[in-house]
Design brief:
Radius of gyration: 16 Å
Order of helices and strands: HHEHEHEEHEHHEE
Largest sheet: 7 strands, mixed
Oligomer: single chain
CATH architecture: 3-Layer(aba) Sandwich
Strand order of the largest sheet: 3-2-1-4-5-7-6
CATH superfamily: Vaccinia Virus protein VP39
Bound molecules: S-adenosylmethionine
Mean pLDDT: 96
Length: 202
């Protein structure tokens, strides 16, 4: 099964799932908004069903939200307020965003799912002007020993997609190595390893 097919299949269930830690989610939004301005052009990659896009779009000028899964984007398009967002079925390739000069690119809960993470980070770097921001939050599932066997079993029965088992320093290093300066980092929530990074394109 391709990654897009996997996410298409689970999209209806994903849309109904609850935010696991609302306080951590609100903190992530708050910290993200601190770095965005009213006139900004923002791209959110891997937007899922658009919940975060709907929270952030009103605070910037142009908000483009994309996802590899047409199923996720269909659900996002049906939500109230979706007409304020430019929703696209797309991955991390530059070609899908050739009409845009983004001030910031966002990726929440996406980087660990990308088989070619280095390639995607290079694309993101190439799309941003110098000084542009890349803001991400990534589960550092390599921090917990039990994720490896758990993931292997779930992948074997088709219940999990490709996922990279990264620890926090590896996430930071991958972003820095792609040509970014990390200007803010955090863990929201603190006890579950999920790495928030605001990075400025060099
Ligand atoms: C765990 S969900 C996160 C959704 C949303 N960002 C959130 O935080 O709730 C991962 C999303 O990434 C999308 N995705 C997976 N691989 C992708 C890729 N290569 N390019 C863009 N989106 C991708 C999936 O379709 C899914 O909607």
């Amino acid at each position: 099964m391709t990654d897009a097919a996997f996410w298409d299949k689970i999209a209806p269930r994903y849309a109904k799932s609850r935010i696991s830690d609302p306080d951590a989610y609100e903190k992530t939004l708050k910290r993200t908004l601190q770095h965005l301005s009213k006139g900004d052009t923002v791209i959110e990659m891997g937007c899922g069903t658009g919940s975060t896009a709907l929270r952030l779009a009103e605070h910037v000028g142009t908000y483009v939200a994309s996802d590899l899964s047409a199923g996720m984007i269909d659900i996002a398009r049906a939500k109230q307020g979706a007409d304020t967002i430019d929703l696209r079925v797309a991955g991390t390739d530059q070609a899908a965003y050739a009409d845009l000069t983004p001030d910031a690119i966002l990726a929440f809960n996406l980087l660990h799912l990308l088989p070619d993470l280095d390639g995607a980070l290079n694309n993101i770097h190439a799309m941003l002007p110098p000084g542009g921001l890349f803001i991400s939050k990534t589960p550092a599932i390599g921090e917990k020993w039990y994720f490896r066997p758990l993931l292997a079993v779930m992948q074997m029965v088709g219940k999990a997609p490709f996922a990279r088992l990264m620890k926090v320093p590896e996430i930071d290093a991958k972003i820095a190595d792609a040509g970014f300066e990390l200007i803010e980092t955090g863990m929201y929530p603190p006890n579950v390893p999920s790495r928030f990074v605001v990075a400025r394109r060099l």
